[in-house]
Amino acid sequence: MKAKVTRSACALALVAAGFAGSAAAQDPAVARGLAATCTACHGTDGRSVGGVPPSLAGRDRGELLQTMKDFRAGKRPATIMHQHAKGYTDAQLELIAGFFAGVKPGAAAAAPAARGGN
Amino acid sequence: MRFSRREFVKWMAASTGAAAVAGCAGMGGSSAGRVVVIGGGYGGATAARHIKLWAPDIEVTIVERGDTFVSCPISNLVLGGNTQIGSITMGYDALRSRGINIIRDEAVGVDAGARQVRLASGKTLSYDRLIVSPGIDFIYDQIPGLKSAEAQNRVLHAWKAGPQTVALRKQLEAMRDGGVFVFQFPMAPYRCPPGPYERVCQVADYLKRAKPKSKIIVLDANPDIVSKKGLFLAAWNGLYKGMIEYRPNSELADVDVKGMVVKLTFDSVKGDVLNVVPPHGAGTIARQAGLITANQRWCGVDWLTMESVAVKGVHVLGDSTLSAPGMPKSASMANQHAKVCAAAVIALIKGQPVIPQPMMMNTCYSFVDGKSSMHVASVHTYDPAQKTMVLVKGAGGVSTAASELEGTYAWGWARNIWGDALG
Questions:
Q1: What is the average pLDDT across B275-286?
Q2: B374 assigned to some structural domain
Q3: What CATH code is carried by the domain that includes residue B104?
Q4: Are residues B246 and B200 in the same domain?
Q5: Does A39 have pLDDT greater than 50?
Q6: Contact B12 A28 (CB under 8 A)
Q7: Is there a contact between B355 and A30 if contact means CB atoms under 8 Å apart?
Q8: pLDDT band for position B29 (50/70/90)?
Q9: A7, A44, A83 ranked by CB distance to B396: nearest
Q10: Which of A15, A26, B274, B322 is the most buried (most CB within 10 A)?
Q11: In this structure, are strands B359-367 and B373-383 parallel, antiparallel, or unpaired?
Q12: A7 in a structural domain
């Protein structure tokens, strides 16, 4: 199964080789970079350790976008999110919401305890 | 144009070009490029981890002196007796299991021409791209009384979390009830703008509980409280009324370690426990590598890539950088530097365009006691005209008041940013 997936990815890689480097091809890196501004607080790829601040991975794109717009408009109560939401344009919020909607929800990657402890 | 996760993976495979195709063909063995990261703190560990996450075919090596990561954020709570050092100490095992090499050693020199890093052990490491994230080192030149190691062990900074944090806590525990804690810190820019004022809260929280006759004298080199002024004053005048004496414009002249006196330009202040944070600049290796470009202290960078403006092929992250306007020296900011750098390093190694307008976001929480916290937030965007990061107008701000709810967010922030660096 794994080999099959790898082979098809390879085929795609070859087919799409000429695609890399164009403006369109950069969109995923731009979205990934924008979403990475959120993940310091919300966990890598939006998978939150302990669930606070909440996980964003796999959430509905429309819901995420509307939530951010409501924060920005002051329609949704917040301690901090209204202040962050005001920093992004609609286009940026769309890319961010699209990125997290496309991530599978899953276990968060917590930092390991020091070996031997303290 | 929308991309699902699956399409994204395909795109990544496509954009990794020849290396990915070679890997698929089962040739393996050779990496797309070699990245060496000096420093395994918030900047370095986060950059290393994200390069590996986003481009597994790049070989990543971290050079780190310590065998553990001790978080500066939250470390003031150790002084307050509100958490333990073990709760803010983590290991590098998860990064190792992700295929990142961790070398416990110290970088002592960089040969940017040969693209090599020299280590204290005598080894050299070759790189295609070098990331320097050494944090800060203290400048003792102008403080004669603190030049000896003995003096530095007696009058602590505790401005790098670790043994000094534990030692300062012990000094506070040993102080008599009715004693005076004297805390002096330098002019901005310094590491963690709200940190000194949070420290005052944490020490006050402990003293109020354990030694209520004691006093705190705050000797701030700055003309006024640098961060979250109204919120900190609310805590000092409310929770800790009568305990804290705040003296602005208190620039350090020297320290009399024997007499336990902090000497200012026109005054001397005696205490039972002295805590002095000396002026600081980019970590020593940044100096040795020729990366310092501003005020003999900080490293100028191209904010699109975090590449040094002085040395090609070398990127600088975190507190060592010459901060862009409105940008704090914070763990949160180092995390964001690291991700812009990771994306740029991958793009540069693979001959792809770098992201034309990076964004960064800052979130810093400060605890006023064991449970309640408050934040300062800002959003930063690249301005192509000024070629620097600038604050997004209308965004960011501070809490309306410290709260237990934000205390839970602060711990959540910590666990997630730790995972984002080390998980």
A1: 98
A2: no
A3: 3.50.50.60
A4: yes
A5: yes
A6: yes
A7: yes
A8: low
A9: A83
A10: B274
A11: antiparallel
A12: no
Tell me: the pLDDT tens digits for B31-74?
A: 999 999 999 999 999 999 999 999 999 999 999 999 999 999 99
Reported ipTM: 0.90
B392 assigned to some structural domain: no
pLDDT in tens, B341-376: 999 999 999 999 999 999 999 999 999 999 999 999
Please tell me the total count of domains within chain A: 1
- With a CB-CB cutoff of 8 Å, which residues 21-80 of chain A face chain B? 21, 24-34, 36-44, 48-53, 79-80
Smallest Cα distance from A107 to chain B, Å: 11
Q: Do A114 and B416 touch (CB under 8 A)?
A: no
What is the domain count for chain B? 2
Query: In whole angstroms, what is the distance from residue A43 CA to residue A32 CA?
Result: 13
Q: How confident is the model at residue A116 (pLDDT cuts 50, 70, 90)?
A: low
Structural domain boundaries enclosing B151: 144-279
Which of A26, A36, A39 is facing B353, going by the closest CB pair?
A: A26
pLDDT at B8: 44
Say if the Cβ atoms of A43 and B420 lie within 8 Å: yes
**Inter-chain residue contact B403 with A79, CB threshold 8 Å:** yes
If 0-12 CB within 10 Å is exposed, 13-18 middle and 19+ buried, where does residue B358 land? Answer: buried
Q: Which residue among B351, B363, B417 places its CB closest to the CB of A80?
A: B363
- pTM of this prediction? 0.90
Q: Which of residues B354, B387, B403 is at a domain's end?
A: B354
pLDDT in tens, B292-348: 999 999 999 999 999 999 999 999 999 999 999 999 999 999 999 999 999 999 999
* Token pair 């979205």 in the structure block, residue: A31
Query: Cβ separation of B89 and A53 shorter than 8 Å?
Result: no
